[in-house]
Every structure is written in C-alpha cells, then in structure tokens.
Amino acid sequence: MYDFEYLKPKALAEAASILAGDGDAKALAGGMTFIPVLKQRLNKPSKVVDLAALGLSGIKVSGETVEIGAMTTHATVAASADVKRAIPALAKLAGNIGDEAVRHRGTIGGSLANNDPSACYPAAVLAMGATIVTNKRRIEADNYFQGMFATALEQGEVITSVVFPVPAKAAYMKFANPASRYAMVGVFVAKGPKGTRVAVTGAGQNGVFRHKAMEEALAKNWSADAVAGVKTPADGLNSDIHASAEYRAHLVGVMAKRAVAAAG
Amino acid sequence: MERNAIGQGLRRSEDARFLTGSGRFLADLVPAGAAWAEIVRSPHAHADIVSVATDAARAAPGVLAVLTGADLAASGIGGVPADEKLIHLPGTPEDVAFSFRPPFPALASGRARFVGEPVAMVVAETAEAAAAAAELVAADYRERPAVAATEAAQGGAAVWDEAPDNVCFRWQAGDAAAAQAAIAAAAHVVRLRVRNNRVHVGALETRGAIGSFAGGRFHLATGTQMPHGLRDALAGVFGVDKSAVHVTVADVGGSFGIRNALCPEQILVLFASRMLGRPVAWLGSRADGFLSDYQARDNVADVELALDADLRFTALRVRTLAAIGAHLAPKGALSPTANTPALAGVYALPAIHVAVTGVFTNTAPTEVYRGAGRPEAVNLVERAVDHAARELGIDRLELRRRNLLAPAAMPYRTRLGLLYDSGDFPGTLADALARHAPPPAPRGWLRGRGIAHYCERVAVLGAENAWLELRPDGRVTLLVGTMSNGQGHQTAYAQLLADRLGIAADMIEVVQGDTDRIPSGGGTGGSASLAIGGQAAALAAADLIAKLTERAGEALEAAAPDIAYADGVFRVAGTDLSIAWHALAARLPEALSAHGMWKPSGPSFPNGCHVAEVDVDPETGAWRLAAYTMVHDFGTVVNPLLLEGQLQGGVAQGFGQAAMEQVVHDPESAQPLTGSWMDYAMPRADDLPGLSLVSRPTPSPLHPLGIKGAGEAGAAGAPPAVMNALLDALAPLGVRDLDMPATPFAVWRAIAAARL
Q1: How confident is residue B29, by pLDDT bands cut at 50, 70 and 90?
Q2: What is the pLDDT of residue B657?
Q3: A1-53: which CATH topology?
Q4: How many helices (H) does chain B have, and how many strands (E)?
Q5: For residue B595, what are the β-bridge partners?
Q6: Which of A45, A160, A258, B32 is the one with CA 20 to 30 A from B224?
Q7: Is the pLDDT of residue B202 over 70?
Q8: Which CATH class is domain A55-263?
Q9: B677 vs A41: CB contact, 8 Å cut-off?
Q10: Do A242 and B743 make contact, defined as CB atoms within 8 angstroms?
Q11: Residue B718 in contact with residue B655, Cβ under 8 Å?
Q12: What span, in angstroms and rounded, lies between the C-alpha atoms of B708 and B689?
C-alpha cells in the first residue's frame, strides 16, 4: 500500500469538495474492491475520503419506490423486510453477493460507482430502470453505465441513494464464476413502471447491457418460452479462462429463461 | 486421574489457541529490529536478464541492501539443492540418471525462466520502504520464446540450453517386455489419455522466512514439515557444519508437502542477515505465493489397459510426461517416479510397465503435494477401469469384481515390487455401496455415480526418534522431529502417550520444530508421523516406565520385576505396597529422560473405496457433489476426530482438483493467468455435502500399534471417484472423456462436442 491521506468528513458537501478539488483523491465506500487494490499497490491515491460518516445508509419504501442509501450494505438490503416485500428479487440478489463478510462491508453505492462488469447490482439497476441520485443530480440507469468500470459520475460527484421503481415482476439469476463467484453471467428480468426490461451482467465486454431482443419477446409474451427462443450473439461478450463468449451467450439464454420462470 | 486412551475422539488441544487468534505463526515472530525484505520477481516467463540496475533502489529511503544474482554468485554460496538420484524400482535400469540437473540459484542470474522467479532482493528498515524501493530496481530483459504446456515441452523452446529437448530425466519401472507381450496378445486394449492438472496449493498461511546470524550461527524461523531436513540443506548451501544452522518452526498454517523443500527466499534472508548483521524478515504476500510457491501435479499420461476375453486385466502400460517446471525443485522428481507403484492399485495385474519423462517448462517448479504421485497413479488406474467398462460394455462393478485382489491373495507382491500385507478390497467395495445413500436428484439433472479404490504405500520415511522428559511435577515433555502443519500432532501424540503412560493427555507437552532442542528428525510427510513418530513415542514411553519401575523399586524397597504399573500407580505384586505417578515423580532429583526410536521394516498399506454421487445440470454444465462415501482401513485409529478432519480435508482437496483447481498459463507467453483467488478456484465448504466416512480397520500386521497412516488418502481417492461419477452422469449424452478440472465450462464443452 502506498501512503495516502485518510479523511473521514462528516458532511456530504465537505466530502464532495475534497474529491472535486483533487483529481487523485478517491472515495471509499465499503472498500471491498478498493482496499484490495490499495494493498496490491495498484492504485496510488493522494487522499482516501471515507464516506461512512455522511449518513448515507438506510432504506425508504413508498408505494411505488424503494430508495436505498448509497452506504447501505448488501446484508442490510438482503435482510430488509421492506425490500423483501416490495422487490424480493433485489433482496435475494443482495444476499448472494460475495460472502458474509463482504455483504457486511460492501455497499450498493460503492458497487455502482465501481461498476465492475461482473457485479450484480448494475443488472438490477438497469433492468428496473432505477435512478442514481447524487449530490448533484438524478441520473437514469440508461445514462449511468458507460462501459467497464466507467460511469456517468463526474469528479466530486458522490452517489447518495438509488431509487428503484417497484416492478410487478422481477427476478435475477446468476451463474457464478467458479473462482470469484462474481457473476460469470447474471440476468435480471423486470416488468414494471419502466417497461419490460432485461439486463445482463458479467457477460459483456462493456459491462452491463440491456438485451433488447429478449425485452421485445417478453413484452409480447412474458414467458420462459418466449426468451428461450431468443438467440444471444456471442459478439461483444467476454472470453476468458472461465468461459468463452459462446458459453456466456448460451448461459445468458438459460439464465434469462430461468429468471422469467422464477419471476412468475 | 482421567484416563486418555487410543481410540478416543479427543478434541484438539491446539484449537483454543488457533480459534482465539493466539496461534504463533511466522508473522507473529518477527523480532524487534528486524529489517524487511521484498523480492523483485521476473515479469517474463523466459528472458535474458541483460542488466539489473539497483542504484536508485539503493538510494531510496531506508534501504539497507539490494542483492542480485551476481552478488550471490560472487559469494560462492550454493543454490536450492535437488535430489541427485532417481529412485530404483523393479525394472528400473541400473544406470538411470537425470539427463540434466540444472542449477537453481536463489536469485536468477543471466536468465529468468518463469514468471515470479526471484531476480533481486531489497532489504530495508520497513516493509513499506522495501516494497517502494523494489519498484525502483530496473531490470532490463530480452524476451525469449517460452514454453508453457507440458505436452508442448518436447519440441518447444529450450528452457535450458543444456537440455534442448527440455528433458530433465527419463525413467521407467516394471517389465516392459511382459507388458508389451500381454498387450500384443490381449483380446482387448483400452487406451486413455489422462491429464493431471497443475495445482496451486494455497495454504492458509503464506510462505515466509526470518533469518538471523549471530555468534557464527544461522537461525531460520520458517514454516516447514521437515525442520532437520531444511537445516541440513541450508548447511550445504552455505558450506557450514549442520551445527551452525538452527531452524525453528512455530505454528504452520498448512503445507500439504509444499513446505517440505528449501525455497530461495529461505536462503536469501539468511544471506542478507549475515551481511547486515541483523535479522531479516520476508513475509510473502498471496500474490508472491501464486507466482512462486512450488506447484504440484501437472502431468499427461497415456494409459493402456489390456484385458483377456474374460475381461480379466492382463497388463497396464503407462507413458507419462511429468512437468518439472523451470527448475528441478528439491523433491521435484519424486512424485512421478517414487510413488508410481500405486499404479498397481487393488487389482490382479500380471504385467505393469511405466515410463516417465520429466520435462522442463517455463513455469514454477513442481514439488510433492498431498499423496505425491499416489493420487496421480490412483487417478490413472481408476479412470482406466471405468473407461474399459464403458468401452467394452460391461458393468463397472462386475469388471471390478472380476479383477479385484481377493483377501486370500494376501500377502500379495505387485509387479511394481510392493508387498501388500493385508486388505479386503471386495469387502470395502461392498460396504461402500451399502453405506452410500444419496438424496434424490433434482428434476432435469443427470445423476452419476463414481467409484474409486485406492491402496497407498505410506509411512516409508526413515527412522524417527522420540525423547521424553518427566519432571518432578509429574508432567511429561515429548520432543519429536515430526512437524505439525495443522494436523493436530499436539493432540495425537499426547493422546497416544497418555494411553501408554497411564496419565492424562493434558499432562503431556509436545515439543516440535526446533533443531537445537530436538537432536534429529525425519519430519512429517507420507502419512508417516503417527505411524513412525507415534511408535517412537510409544517406545520412549516404555523406556520411561521401565526406568520409573526401577525408581519405584527403590522407593518401595522391592525388586523391579515384582512391580507392575497400571493407571498411574506402581504396585508391588502380592502386597498392598504402591506408589503413584506423582509421588514417584516428586522424588526425582531432576528430570528423568527416556528415548525411543522406530524405523519401520516396511511401508503400510492403508486402503479403501470412495463413492461419489454427482448431479449435472445438462443445460449449463454446472454440477454438484450430491453425496460422498468413503470406506477406509487405516488400521488402528488413535483419534477418530482427527482422522475425520484429515479425511474431510483430503477429500475436499481431491474434489477441488477434480472440480475446479487449475493453474493456467497463456499458451504463448507462459504468463500465469490464475494469479489470485479471483481466477484460481478453491473449493469452499458449501461445495461439499456431508461426507459419509466409514471406518473398517484391520490393524497393520507390520506395525506394533497396528497404525497405517491416513493423511493423504482422501486426496488420493476423490479425483477419480468424482470424475468417474461425472462421466457416468454424462454417458447418456455421449460424453466419453473429460479432463480435470471439470469446470462447468469444460462440462458444457464436452456435452456440446458429444452432440456434434
């Protein structure tokens, strides 16, 4: 680990100002990716700005939305009776991220700011058409994800919460990477206020993406059979030691089919 | 007084310490004032080292020294020593020898031959200063073509100029002519190529070494299974007498064979410490471990199994390519040669021949790992038996029953020279099948069952000594040269001695891991600690009781032959005169010493049968282990809880190799692609069902206590049991072959290929 200055501001404005004023400053949420990266000397920030004291955790459920504070841990989301009632698929997704220790440190805001191409939350956010709320603005999911580890966030912009419109039907199916247990392919299907949407994580070279062909098929006929007939091209999908693009394309189809069946 | 006896499931006395964070692992032992080392490693699999510029690193804050291969060469110290001779078995030519035994300097000089090979060492006041300065060491490399795959070694780029065909050794055993004749005359010959995947051991505690030099003596604190062996090797490296080297080992977080051998960093910290006059600590990171720990397995074997018209085996012939890595590690040639007798398995095999070629590749050196060649051999035979059954259209159980050695055949001399003393192989098979009770398969999944027998030759290390000291407070200290790496030796020895001495186990302290305090030691390996060290301890106990009986005679004014000892009390026969253990100990003017030595006359043969049940999701290739049964014969069981721990861990390791573990290199550049847990898959607890472990002991007739040794058996049987189960499940889809590791991707590919 390289030396850096550690700061734990108590006000959002102060955190944002530090981050805005120093291009080499980095925000620390749960640190489940960032701290290993620091330990391996793969990142050399000038300052690490810990967001833990900004009061950004908590879950608010209204009739139509579930709003989750950016610093809310996966374990909290997974255990929340409100989330389980409103969007059970989201609680289940959170309960299957990483392991117990990761779920008690890792946060939804951290996951979305990092936008790991194999992370689970981006699929839920994109499929349900959630809104990313920051200290500056509200960003629609369709505009937020901009490729592998790339987002619409600007320097000094901090996610404060995520607002999910409550879908009528939703489910997430993950095929775990045998080593990391990140999503080798994860498919989130949702039918709700933002339409019928299918988001795929883990598979795309540019991170999470919407599967338009499946969305069209499901919009016409919400059934496992409808997506089973949609072929996913391997072009643009990842190939690595764990799975070829062709295998991932195949798994997208299987996971989508099973997700629709699970969503009912 | 509480009576502790052989056979009780005593809980591990170590565990309170381990579970509450009060174990003493290497990172807990760094002395105040130690300097810290960081290793600069080659980023290339194969490259000429044109120059190593160290000026900037030397000038960095806190830096005490920067060492390169040139410094070591100038000092005249030796490199990591490897075995000088190949083993002889029946059929091995007298003149068999290494084709090339390359030098293995602790820091590469002139050429780097694998990614992660140490090229320089930086020593600084703090670990952070050392890490920062290591980034300033500027090595200039000229890349060379590299060879990664074992199958590509012969004909690939030469790792060593002296071995243009990349051959380290060619070796054979058995009867080539008999095997050839049997194959030529056979009604059927089934052939199979079996790849044994390269694994990273990934012990919980990463590697490390703390060196110091004072009063003309080296002191190395490190993790190892064989402290005395390491001491002797280091004395050779530094050209000093053994008495000038002191090796100490505290708690060790896992070894599985990989910490047996001397490694470069252990040499480097001692060298730097002597140079700087202060202790030097190197605590390797997980990333260091993935690149530079000795790795294991990695061979490719072509198997031919010949059968007569009645489907009785007539010959087994095996041609193996074994990966040595870029250097010959200390025991790098052992696994593919010395333990090939396990190929004889549990079958009547009238002819066997095995030929092994050890090849260099631009990869980390390979070493012994849990079973050290036995799991590889068992995997070959058991895969071949199932393959033969499928190819010849006979039930696997029927084929086994026709060929299993019967109990009446014991003792049986195999064609690779082993003399099996005992074993009821049809009985263990029948028991295993009777005890195997898998849950129903999920709907739509394919169910498969796999069977694998094993019969291992273990406990073949040399002699072990044990020393006891009884103090006036009645407590006993055992000094023994074996070394626990997490197995629970403290508990096992104390329990065994409690049984022999008639005192409670908690009255016995076990001392291990100190070459100054313990005069000699064979170390731990080959499932031998309890079989050899345990018997040495039992003999020391007998010696102690004999000496105490003399003392009791003095105390009771009786003749020693009239005194009997039982349950902590010495009694004069036919009288009510007696003296208890504590009272007798209290009369001792000083500690009373006793000694025992045991050198086994031959190996023991633990054996058993594994049955694995798998469920495969044919749509994705995902699968899970649904049930697992292992019937085992380890002879006398000292502690069934410790045994169960050994078997659970062993089966998990074997399952891991079958299911997911694999060191992967880029085939062109030989860059490792599995450099962290993100890409190297290690089994987790939830990958395994509860294991059904069934003890069917027959005490070893060759061992005074009847012990056979159990440490490696789980890892030996699990890979073929699991692979045979998968192939059974996939047979309806037309899949006939599958290599380890059977990842979902591999299974899906096999299914897709079978459909074509």
Answers
A1: very high
A2: 98
A3: 3.30.43
A4: 18, 28
A5: B467
A6: B32
A7: yes
A8: alpha beta
A9: no
A10: yes
A11: yes
A12: 27
pLDDT value, residue B2: 57
Q: Does B127 touch chain A (CB under 8 A)?
A: no
pLDDT band at residue B422 under the 50/70/90 scheme:
confident
Domains of chain B, earliest start first: 15-22+461-598 (3.30.365.10), 28-146+206-285 (3.90.1170.50), 421-459+602-756 (3.30.365.10)
pLDDT in tens, B338-396: 999 999 999 999 999 999 999 999 999 999 999 999 999 999 999 999 999 999 999 99
Please report residues of A whose CB lies closer than 8 A to that of B674.
179, 241
Sign of dihedral through CA atoms A194, A198, A202, A208?
A: negative
Q: Write out the two tokens for B718.
A: 């699990």
Chain A, chain B: beta-carbon pairs less than 8 Å apart: 44
Q: What is the mean pLDDT of chain B?
A: 95
Residues B84-109 have a mean pLDDT of 95
Are residues B364 and B295 in contact, defined by beta-carbon separation less than 8 angstroms? yes
Q: What value does the mean pLDDT take over residues B397-419?
A: 95
Domain boundaries, chain A: 1-53, 55-263
Q: Does A4 touch chain B (CB under 8 A)?
A: no
* Confidence label for B44 from pLDDT (cuts 50, 70 and 90): very high
**DSSP secondary structure string for all residues of B465-509:** EEEEEE-TTS-EEEEES---SSS-HHHHHHHHHHHHHTS-GGGEE
How many residues in total does chain B contain? 756
Chain A residue numbers with beta carbons less than 8 Å from the beta carbon of B687 are none
CA distance B711 to B713: 6
Q: Hey, are the CB atoms on A241 and B679 less than 8 Å from each other?
A: yes
Q: Which residues of B touch A179 (CB under 8 A)?
A: 660, 674, 677-682
Residue in A179, A182, A243 nearest the CB of B680: A179
